[in-house]
Amino acid sequence: MEKTLRFDSLLVHGGLEAGPAGATSVPVVQSSSFAYATAEALEDVFRGRAVGQVYTRLGNPTTEALERRLALLEGGGAAIATASGMAAITTTVMTIVRAGDEILASSSLFGGTFSLFRDTLSTFGVTVRFVDPLDLDGFSASVNERTRLLFVETIGNPKLDVPDIPKLAEIAHQAGLPLVVDATVTTPYLANGAVLGADIVIHSTSMYINGPGTSIGGVIIDRGVFNWSGPQFPHFEQFHKKYRAFAFTARARKLVHKDVGACAAPFNSFLLTEGIQTLALRMDRHCGNALALARFLKGHPKVAWVNYPGLDDSPQHEVASRLYGTRYGGLLTFGTGDKGSAFRAINGLNMAKNLANIGDAKTLVIHPASTICADYPAADKALMGVTEDLIRVSVGIEDPDDIIEDFKRALDAL
Ligand SMILES: Cc1ncc(COP(=O)(O)O)c(C=O)c1O
Fold first, then answer.
1. Whose CA is nearest to atom 6 of ligand 1?
2. Global confidence as pTM
3. How far apart are CA 414 and CA 401, in angstroms?
4. In the chain, which end has fewer C-beta atoms inside a 10 angstrom radius, N or C?
């Protein structure tokens, strides 16, 4: 059935197997480990001669159902659900790079990813080169013999720039390298990995995939389209021989994911399989509300600037429309001129919540310069487009008139 279902139907039915007593929700298998009747049967599972679960750090039936659904939504492949979006990114890069290797990454990244790449990975001998993701020639010119992967966000958080992912995929593939895409902001609904040409797609499922903001999670989807037999990947040789196109997933599952231990909790996987069912409906509303709020903010006298790829005069509008059609995501940023007025604007909001998250059903705001990016030097903040007056808004699915009234009240009082 799944082969013929369209995206919105896969959100509801994808990966679902009949549950006990005809249950139509994914059963929560809240068990650390799984028993076998004989020593021979458990050996067979350990050696991969039989299919089965062993221990929830390695795999779990509830999590597997989520993984099947997410892989289908990305246009096919294999998925590994993780404890968080950061765990998905860490597991992915640790699977691909070794000490001495380099990553070529977008300079416009979520703060946590930037910190992982700049501060943590460098202590393990991995160098990350940051390049403006809109500068395709710069990306191309920065590939060298040590580069092992290209990493980019579909829409940079919080810079909201929109890289041309299919062109970056071409650059990566010409160099024999995989393109890893963090698609948290766009979700598979705006355009999936198959459409964009990404080899590995990562989501923080804590955001739009979850919906009401109830759990932290992440996922890595290996589309099974990259050839891991190239000279840059001798460490994939044994996995490529046996698992061919899915050598990445095999190496991740059998080594890094198993050893790092950042597995998804079964109850979170259950919440995610529930939440994701309404993704298409919510994303339509997030995008529509974000456009309405962006247009309102543009016309408000206390607003110095607005950044939203859905605005006709946004420099990102053309690429965003080509890649994502008429939906431009639920994130926008705007400035009020200085930090003091930005704080007063946030403090004046009643309905929108001031917190560090995006993609919740509720409208959320944050002042990144004093929170997520507080410890970054000015040059890094500039690279990420974080100015002192910037307010990031993750526009929720409430009535758009209520959202606009909330911002109007706060801004009128400045
Ligand atoms: C684009 C993006 N990627 C990854 C992450 C990290 O996800 P998590 O908080 O689930 O670890 C975030 C978190 O905000 C994000 O915005």
1. 85
2. 0.97
3. 20
4. N
